[in-house]
Specification:
Shape: globular
Distance between the termini: 42 Å
Strand order of the largest sheet: 1-7-6-2-3
Number of strands: 12
Order of helices and strands: HEHEHEEEHEHHEHEHEHEHEHEH
Radius of gyration: 21 Å
Strand content: 5-15%
Number of helices: 12
Length: 307
């Protein structure tokens, strides 16, 4: 009898032992503070990617940071303003930066405008798409670093290039077909400001006003404090659960106008809040509205408490 009970408990005990390994897959937090970064600048595993314009980088940057201009990670292709580079091109870019799977990569940019403040998350998501797990965002961007009068450098940094081949999966990005085939089964989050969601305003690059039918509105700006640092985990949780529900395994897609701002919520939901199945639609409304068979509506949809 005792042997039977023990044999039944062994699988459970084994599963419990595995939990810390799963939870602690990261070696660094998904969002790091300026204090953490300052204390770890000399860590040999750390790579800091500065995604600002090259001329801004040359005027001064965080010591040791590499210039990794945002345009290398998202650029004009097939009429879309923020397309994902081909895998071979991404491999070359990541390898040129000297990044491997064991490094800690902190992505920084400036937060002077909403568009600029979203670029770091897009680069972080792209690195994770390539299979690099230990990626982080600097809370408050380089603006907070400057405000705290932390050290700056004008030295042009280089790292020894590596041969890199990504471990690409479909867990980060969604395309148009993915959404069309699952339209009634997905939780779709439109992360634009409300007037764009309702169709009162429209960007010139988006052919039609409105949003994807069934989408909930959860503006990206809601993720930030006034100083462009991220809100607390508790505050972020309340915002997301009001729109997407509490089911951490639900299939969720975030989108915006061009695929630039939707990475913020996608990154936060997956890396900070534990939503396991979140993808960002890289083509977003710019692609969705280019064909007449893709539905668009201005009807509002109220969030559900849970799903």
């Amino acid at each position: 009898m005792k042997k039977s009970i023990l044999s039944g408990l062994l699988p459970l005990l084994f599963a419990i032992l595995l939990i810390p390994a799963i939870v602690q897959a990261r070696d660094i937090a998904p969002i790091v503070s300026t204090e953490w970064l300052s204390a770890n600048l000399k860590n040999p595993r750390l790579i800091v990617l500065d995604v600002r314009r090259v001329e801004d980088y040359r005027e001064g940057h965080i010591p040791g940071a590499l210039s990794a201009f945002y345009g290398s990670w998202a650029y004009m292709k097939d009429g879309l303003f923020a397309s994902l580079p081909e895998k071979d091109d991404l491999d070359d870019t990541i390898g040129y930066m000297g990044i491997g799977f064991d490094e800690w990569v902190v992505v920084i940019g400036c937060v002077d405008t909403p568009r600029l403040s979203y670029q770091s998350a897009r680069v972080a998501c792209t690195l994770q798409y390539a299979g690099i797990e230990n990626v982080a965002l600097l809370d408050g961007g380089i603006n907070k670093w400057i405000a705290e009068k932390k050290p700056f450098s004008k030295k042009i940094e280089r790292r020894k290039a590596k041969h890199f081949r990504g471990k690409y999966t479909g867990e980060v990005f969604a395309d148009k077909n993915y959404i069309k085939e699952r339209l009634s089964k997905l939780i779709i989050l439109d992360v634009r400001e409300r007037e764009f969601f309702t169709g009162e305003k429209k960007m010139d690059c988006v052919p039609k006003a409105g949003h994807i039918p069934g989408a909930f509105n959860m503006p990206t700006s809601c993720a930030f404090n006034n100083d462009k640092t991220f809100k607390t985990k508790e505050e972020l949780t309340a915002i997301v659960e009001a729109a997407a529900g509490k089911n951490r395994s639900a299939a969720i897609v975030t989108y915006c106008d061009m695929g630039q701002c939707c990475p913020i919520w996608s990154y936060l939901m997956k890396q900070v809040l534990g939503y396991a199945n979140v993808k960002l639609y890289v083509g977003s409304m710019q692609e969705w509205t280019q064909t007449p068979d893709a539905p668009v509506t201005t009807n509002d949809k109220k969030p559900k408490a849970d799903k």
